[in-house]
Amino acid sequence: MTGNPYDDPSFFAGYATLPRSVHGLDGAPEWPSLRALLPPLAGLDVLDLGCGHGWFCRHAAGEGARRVLGLDSSRLMLARAQEANAHPAVAYAHADLEAAEFPPASFDLAWSSLALHYVERLEALLARVHAALRPGGALVFSVEHPVYSAPSRPGWTKAADGGLSWPVDRYMVEGPRVVEWLGGRVAKRHRLASTTINAVLRAGFALSHVEEWRPSDAQIAAKPSLAVELERPMFLLLAARRAS
Amino acid sequence: MTGNPYDDPSFFAGYATLPRSVHGLDGAPEWPSLRALLPPLAGLDVLDLGCGHGWFCRHAAGEGARRVLGLDSSRLMLARAQEANAHPAVAYAHADLEAAEFPPASFDLAWSSLALHYVERLEALLARVHAALRPGGALVFSVEHPVYSAPSRPGWTKAADGGLSWPVDRYMVEGPRVVEWLGGRVAKRHRLASTTINAVLRAGFALSHVEEWRPSDAQIAAKPSLAVELERPMFLLLAARRAS
Domain coordinates of chain B in residue numbers? Predict the structure, then answer.
């Protein structure tokens, strides 16, 4: 996560206009699905990997989490989090997830929303997260789905019958993908779903649940533009547990 | 698996010409990856769900498996298996996987190659397979990858730069997919990767490994037509264990 676009003021200003920046968790359509994977938060020590504006940190504190540590590599993000989502139980700190060290057996939940696809050495990070969790602790995260990140020419195409397709290529070729987004160039890691899942297993976790997110019928009724997300998977959600 | 196309003599004749039918396991490019997921077979009781021509059954017997039960819903398949891959340790039997019952705690390995995407009630089958395995027993299987099975108009498209793409649509809409293959119409179940994995977990298994198969560089060098399989995932492989 070096050369972080989230530290570019113009990119950051664009990011700040996204529904999930303005409305927080309720502006993220995958939030209800992620929330269903969480343990009850009251009394927990929580680690947020890539906390962004801090919406989840404040949510966890509001649910009674004992202590929440929100880490991000963007200083603009951290300043915004401190401004928008300060809470006595929450601490925000600068960290590069590629290298961050955590105190052993100190957290009950590690959470990450759409941040781990920026991390190059995922398995090494997950091994450090595993050690940072107490036995029985939970890992819950979302990443961009590899069907979404794979294409060398990302975009919808229209078939003769008017139906939309998402053309996939280079799926099996893992590595960097640079996309134009919010007027900037963002470098992500394209990683197979299987690579992500195996990294979780090899780090010592027991997998509890994996989910290729889809909008619910109620969400589509409320916001018909979400219907296109039935054509391709956009997010991969995962829950796992440190067994011992 | 009712109205089984594999019991149609003309479809079956076409199937018999496929490399994996003629050359057995060595004709299946995903076999080396699947084999790497298997425990040592010597002394094991093995259940093969959808045994087809019986190539795996005979392989397992050749590796010293104690007893191998190959099940298939196609009587033509079973006749061919008996003819091509008979072995004193192998028994072939007719069974509909949607309903088949197995003796409890009687097998050390349940194996299935490209058969479970024909099964509608996968989770119920996996629960019966879990009960049929001894504690510590292994489940290893392959299915068509959902990126491969999803499209309503399956086929490659060529971009302006000549690159091939595999257009995906209806990914999130699970259910039957009818495709034309070998001059017949074959009805498969399109199932998300996450649904398959969660079915394994809910049946009581601990997931060991999941793999979106890709041809190796050596396989592509030996057979350049395999290179297109770098563009999209074709097979999903999975290994799990009955913990207790």
Answer: 5-145+180-242
Q: Please provide the CATH number assigned to the domain covering A5-242.
A: 3.40.50.150
Sheet with strand B67-72: strands edge to edge: B90-94, B67-72, B45-49, B107-113, B133-144, B235-242, B205-212
Fold of B5-145+180-242: Rossmann fold (3.40.50)
Question: Which distant-in-sequence residues (6+ apart) come within 8 Å of B123 by Cβ?
Answer: B199, B202, B203
> Chain A: residue nearest B155 by CA?
A167
Q: Which of B147, B167, B210 is the closest to A171 by Cβ?
A: B147
* Share of residues in chain A with pLDDT > 90 (%): 84
Nearest in space to A111 (alpha carbons), one of A135, A129, A95: A129
pLDDT tens digits, one per residue of B86-107: 999 999 999 999 999 999 999 9
Say whether A210 and B194 touch across the interface (CB within 8 A). Answer: yes
In Å, how far is A229's CA from the nearest CA of chain B? Answer: 8
The residue of A196, A207, A214 whose CB has the most chain B CBs within 10 angstroms, and thus the best one to mutate to test that interface, is A207
Encode pLDDT of A155-176 as tens digits.
Answer: 999 987 889 999 999 999 999 9
Chain A CA closest to residue B192? A212
- Structure pTM? 0.96
Residue indicated by tokens 């649910």: A63
pLDDT digits (tens, 9 = 90+) for A7-43: 898 888 888 888 898 889 999 999 999 999 999 999 9
